[in-house]
Design the sequence.
């Protein structure tokens, strides 16, 4: 059973109406691959391209929610909307769950009513930024590296009240520290270790330790440039990030957030959902079946909001 904390299938479906979630060959994740590969929970992100003009942002987010319902849930009665840990526990053996998440809160437009509206539509995890600054915080690639704004603080307080995840992936380092202080349910849906690959999107050791301290989970991601600085990243390099988090005491605090369909470049033999099988085979050479099950599923599921 696999829990994958981040993918951009909705973004792909929105950009190109010809892409086929059921069984197309132009998506990293399809229904058929999820079924064939033992998927149990897949998170689907609402992500707005920075090109979307401000007056269109909430509408665009709603369009992606609509795609989530029309293209993911409606044609596939075996995929259930997951709103709570209880929903996950209630999935039958032949069912899987889909979680709606937000990557960057541009569409909220400093309006917590819009956040709560998305929550009522199923939203259960919120990343405050993508790579750049917005009303809530600075992202990892914003040069000035600012922290949380006053609005960002109110966002996190609201997420705590709603009891849903605050996702620290993509935040600037300063915004990370501001967030980790406030957030009661922090995760990093798709981030790797800076110690292994020096990229501003990755987490430094003290950040990883803080997430562990806060009972959070870090989703290891397969984006090649976050896996290895120079040369072709391989599955063995992904495992180095897992080893490193374990060495920091994070065996029960790591999972996966593939970023499938959010990245054009992929790792050889880890370039579509079905390749989880190859990753699992490699993991089992170094870790026990119990540990691998924790990484793939239990660590994220056990922290899923009630
Ligand atoms: Zn991302």
Sequence:
């Amino acid at each position: 059973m696999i829990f994958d904390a981040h993918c951009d299938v909705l973004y792909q479906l929105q950009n190109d109406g010809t892409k086929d979630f059921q069984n197309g060959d132009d998506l990293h994740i399809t229904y058929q691959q999820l079924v064939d590969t033992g998927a149990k929970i897949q998170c689907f992100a609402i992500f707005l391209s920075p090109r979307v003009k401000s007056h269109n942002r909430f509408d665009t987010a709603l369009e992606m929610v609509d795609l989530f319902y029309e293209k993911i849930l409606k044609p596939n009665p075996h995929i259930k909307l997951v709103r709570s840990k209880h929903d996950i526990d209630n999935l039958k053996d032949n069912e899987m769950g889909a979680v709606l998440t937000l990557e960057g809160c541009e569409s909220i437009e400093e309006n917590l009513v819009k956040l709560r509206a998305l929550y009522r539509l199923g939203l259960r995890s919120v990343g405050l930024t993508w790579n750049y600054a917005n009303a809530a915080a600075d992202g990892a690639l914003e040069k000035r590296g600012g922290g949380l704004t006053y609005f960002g603080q109110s966002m996190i307080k609201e997420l705590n009240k709603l009891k849903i995840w605050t996702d620290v992936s993509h935040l600037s380092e300063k915004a990370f520290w501001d967030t980790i202080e406030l957030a009661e349910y922090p995760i990093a849906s798709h981030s790797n270790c800076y110690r292994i690959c020096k990229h501003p999107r990755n987490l430094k050791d003290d950040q990883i330790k803080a997430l562990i301290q806060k009972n959070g989970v870090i989703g290891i991601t397969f984006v090649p440039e976050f896996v290895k600085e120079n040369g072709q990243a391989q599955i063995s390099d992904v495992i180095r990030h897992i080893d490193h988090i374990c060495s920091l005491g994070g065996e029960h605090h790591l999972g996966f957030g593939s970023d499938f369909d959010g990245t054009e470049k992929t790792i050889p033999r880890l370039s579509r959902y079905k390749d989880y099988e190859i990753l699992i085979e490699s993991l089992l050479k170094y870790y026990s079946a119990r540990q691998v099950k924790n990484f793939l599923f239990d660590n994220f599921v056990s922290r899923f909001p009630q």
